[in-house]
Specification:
alpha/beta; 434 Repressor (Amino-terminal Domain); Endonuclease, Chain A; 2 domains; 7-stranded mixed beta sheet; 13 helices; elongated
């Protein structure tokens, strides 16, 4: 993974440029020939291939059409659009604190109809209680040395989470059993959080699955990720937030989610695992 937003964006630009060059060569075309077919000069083709100029959506469609590769245009357009936002360091996102970061995601949550989340580390944000969110965000603020606006950030996160009870949304959420035992905050905080998980399981909009320690796996635990409809997937790394919108990459996370859900347990079995975690607090 790149060490900075700029290096990450440049690598993504180079990847798009390299793919366009491969498409041109696969069509047995040279730069000048492709330029003639697209109706621009050869210098533009050279700048695009060398990642000196970012192609527009129109450029990519023309390029793929000239090469007989129209079926690859949409993936390339999505990758090209995502270049500057696909990898953003937390220090850039949280330089004014955590509240604005919570608020910035509200439009995405409100327009998403099918929300899928997998977590191997913490209770997903939309299911967090006030005390749990406070303990988590306080730890985040301290570790990342952000301005301390934890109270405001928690309020913003809880306001964002209202989507599980309003509007036309469906939430499919999977957590590793270990999430139930990672203690953030006091015993009372964890007990309240786990009890809240039992409560939200009854909501018709929420499907909550727990992947047991004992599950026979055909997929290893991976980084926590969210999928918003089939349009976007987001991951939270220690150093940065990663967003992918390329259809093939979003599909990769969707396939991982489908594997995880097959060895999760639901309903009474999930309740039993959560209740067992509550009992362990005592």
């Amino acid at each position: 993974m790149p060490t900075s937003p700029s290096s990450g964006a440049q690598e993504a630009r180079l990847a798009v440029a390299a793919r366009l060059r491969e498409i041109m060569l696969d069509a047995c075309l040279q730069g000048q020939e492709l330029a003639a077919l697209c109706g621009w000069n050869g210098a533009k083709t050279s700048r695009i291939i060398n990642a000196k100029t970012a192609p527009s959506d129109k450029d990519i469609r023309a390029w793929c059409a000239a090469c007989g590769a129209d079926d690859q245009a949409e993936d390339l357009i999505a990758a090209n659009r995502a270049v500057d936002s696909m990898y953003v360091e937390w220090r850039r996102l949280t330089r004014t604190g955590l509240r604005r970061l919570q608020e910035s995601a509200v439009p995405l949550y409100e327009r998403t109809r099918h929300f899928r989340a997998y977590s191997s580390r913490v209770v997903p944000g939309v299911l967090q209680t006030e005390a749990y969110a406070t303990a988590l965000l306080a730890t985040v603020a301290d570790f990342r040395r952000t301005p301390n606006d934890v109270t405001e950030a928690v309020a913003a996160r809880l306001a964002r989470s209202r989507v599980i009870r309003t509007g036309n949304h469906r939430f499919a959420i999977l957590v590793e059993e270990s999430v139930l035992y990672y203690r953030l905050g006091s015993v009372a905080t964890m007990a309240e959080q786990l009890a809240y998980l039992l409560a939200v399981m009854s909501l018709p909009t929420v499907s909550l699955g727990v992947i047991p320690f004992t599950a026979v796996r055909s997929m290893w635990p991976v980084e926590t990720f969210n999928i918003f409809d089939d349009a976007e997937a987001g991951m939270e790394l220690l150093s940065a937030q990663v967003t992918v919108t390329t259809p093939s990459e979003v599909d990769l996370y969707a396939r991982a989610f489908d594997r995880f859900k097959d060895f999760a347990v639901y309903g009474a079995q999930a309740r039993s695992l959560i209740s067992k975690a509550i009992d362990s607090l005592e």
